[in-house]
Design goal:
The protein is of the alpha/beta class. It has a 7-stranded parallel beta sheet. The protein has a two-stranded antiparallel sheet with strand order 7-8. Helix 1 runs parallel beside helix 2 and helix 3 packs across helix 4. 43% of the residues lie in helices and 12% in strands.
């Protein structure tokens, strides 16, 4: 949800269309730095949050941040920007920030991953008193972006000094574009099984539920509304009903207009897929009682 007009507006917009989960940017996502929240902003946010029944509100880091890059002015800014975002998230009481693992910019995956680990270590040292975690997001792997292989995220977990400050956010469109065929139950099981083997299913903090305009394995990051892309509506049935991740927050990052009608439609589809399976189970139970 957009924070235009004030950070509390994201919650207001989410409440307006009956969201259960809201993701927001803690500052302008295309600028390095933002201003600390004024006391009045924090008060309005707290009041709005208290009046809502969201199961989870979490943040997403800015798109300029790239800790996987070589030493440079931009990497220095990336580190300072992330530290500020963690501080802003702390002031809002957010449990975690979703962040892409960055791009190695032709320096090689191993180099980029080592840079990412070093950057996270520094950011966690600078924010040692914050409970905010970083949820590493799997990516489509466009260009030199890291994270299209779950093993990349596993490496970061294994090497970082404070793995308890990490988590994972899984994006369905990114999975698909990276080559994981989650359209079938087996494909989804294999993808989630890899996460469990290399990181641990308990480390999954959230999901981005997006269809993909791009083909399987295209490595192109283009989101579509649920059922309007190459993954297809039916695939989300086994995704949202997977008992292994029941209760985990999920949000949409699909195209939308100012009146948010697309969000309303996409939420309705996902909820219908979830409810339809519950109703089916209830019908089976009813039949069994008759027998």
């Amino acid at each position: 949800m957009s924070t235009s007009g004030g950070v509390w507006r994201a919650l207001e917009r989410g409440r307006g269309i009956a969201c259960e989960v809201v993701q927001l940017f803690v500052k302008n996502n295309m600028q390095w730095f933002g201003k600390p929240y004024a006391p009045d902003d924090l008060s309005k946010y707290a009041n709005e949050f208290a009046g809502c029944s969201f199961s989870c509100v979490f943040g997403h880091s800015g798109y300029l941040i790239n800790l996987a890059a070589a030493a440079s002015d931009n990497r220095d800014k990336s580190l300072k920007s992330l530290i500020q975002e963690i501080e802003l998230a702390t002031s809002l009481g957010l449990p975690f920030l979703v962040m892409h693992p960055g791009a190695h910019l032709e320096k090689g995956e191993e180099y980029g991953l080592k840079q990412m680990v070093a950057g996270l270590n520094e950011a966690f040292r600078a924010t040692k008193n914050s409970p905010v975690r970083i949820a590493l997001e799997n990516t489509a792997g466009q260009g030199s972006c890291l994270g299209h292989r779950i093993s990349h995220l596993g490496y970061i977990f294994d090497q970082v000094d404070r793995p308890e400050r990490l988590g994972v956010c899984l994006d369905t469109a990114h999975f698909f574009a990276a080559g994981y065929d989650i359209r079938t139950e087996k494909g989804w099981d294999d993808a989630l099984g890899e996460v469990d083997d290399l990181i641990g299913i308990e480390q999954v903090l959230a999901f981005h539920l997006n269809d993909s305009k791009s083909d399987l394995g295209s490595r192109v990051d283009r989101h579509a509304g649920i059922g309007q892309g190459k993954i297809g509506r039916e695939a989300f049935r086994h995704i949202v009903n997977d008992a292994r991740v029941a209760g985990k927050p999920g949000c949409l990052e699909t195209p939308k207009s100012k009146d948010l009608h697309e969000d309303v439609e996409n939420l309705a589809i996902l909820r219908d897929l979830l409810q339809s399976k519950a109703k089916k189970a209830a019908r089976k139970k009813k039949v069994s009682r008759r027998d």
